[in-house]
Design goal:
Elements lengths: L8 E4 L3 E5 L7 E7 L14 H16 L8 E3 L13 E5 L1 H4 L6
Antiparallel strand pairs: 1-2, 2-3, 3-5, 4-5
């Protein structure tokens, strides 16, 4: 994985990195990116460690940033909706949900 844009890593495992989106579309907008170069969800093997890390990291971030009460979305885009050819997930929430202002 190339790190052309410097980012603050919010959470990292052996298979995943989570960080604030450099160009957020929501007040709280975190990217969860596998370290292996999967182009899309269809390339991800069902037994990939990334899947369990995605769930536990999402749970960690929802608790850390107090997103449960206000609501949040976990999104993976595919096909024409996917802007970059590297699988990634968006964890998004609005200001009332974060309780912490812009970027948590």
């Amino acid at each position: 994985m190339s790190w052309i844009i410097p980012v603050e890593r919010l959470h990292e495992t052996d298979s995943l990195i989570a960080f604030h989106h450099p160009k957020p579309s929501h007040t709280f907008h975190v990217l969860l990116v596998p370290k292996r170069p999967y182009a899309s969800l269809l390339e991800l093997p069902p037994q990939a460690t990334f899947l369990s890390d995605l769930v536990t990291t999402t749970q960690f971030l929802v608790e850390r940033f107090n997103l449960l009460d206000g609501g949040y979305s976990l999104i993976a885009n595919g096909g024409d909706y996917q802007d970059v050819p590297h699988l990634h997930f968006h964890l998004i929430a609005e200001p009332a949900a974060t309780g912490q202002g812009e970027h948590g």
